[in-house]
Specification:
Layout lengths: L1 E2 L5 H24 L12 E2 L2 H8 L6 E4 L13 H9 L4 E4 L8 H7 L1
Parallel strand pairs: 1-2, 3-4
Helix pairs in contact: 2-3
Length: 112
C-alpha cells in the first residue's frame, strides 16, 4: 500500500501509521477466514504507487494488483498504475478485476 508523500515528514509518518493499522486489520480479517492461509507480508510505503510497485517488482516473483475499474472485453483499458507495472515491471503482473462487469454483445460472442 502506498500513501502520498507530503512536504511535512510528520504528516507523512502519521499517514503511514494510519494506513498500516488499516491494512493490518484488513489482512487479519481476511486471514481469519481461512484456516490454512499462506504467510502474507505487506508494508506501507510513501510515494507514487506506480513508482513504488515498479521498483518493488525488481525483487518480486509476481506483482498482484486489484483493478478499480470495470473494463469490458471490448474496451480493455487499465489504470495508470497497472499499465506502468505491466510495461515497466521486472516480473509478471496479475491484475484482478474488481467485481464482474455487465456482459456486452462482444463478450457474449466470445463466451459462446
Amino acid at each position: 500500500m502506498t500513501v502520498p508523500k507530503t512536504g511535512d515528514s510528520a504528516e507523512t509518518h502519521a499517514m503511514v501509521r494510519e494506513a498500516e493499522a488499516a491494512l493490518s486489520a484488513l489482512v487479519d480479517e481476511a486471514i481469519a477466514e481461512h484456516a490454512e492461509a499462506p504467510s502474507v507480508s505487506y508494508r506501507v510505503v510513501p510515494g507514487d504507487p506506480a513508482v513504488v510497485l515498479v521498483n518493488a517488482s525488481r525483487s518480486a516473483e509476481l506483482v498482484v494488483l486489484g483493478s478499480h475499474g470495470m473494463s469490458s472485453l471490448s474496451n480493455p483499458a487499465l489504470g495508470s498504475v497497472s499499465t506502468a507495472c505491466i510495461r515497466m515491471g521486472s516480473c509478471p503482473v496479475l491484475v484482478i478485476q474488481a467485481g464482474k462487469p455487465e456482459t456486452t454483445e462482444d463478450e457474449e460472442l466470445v463466451l459462446r
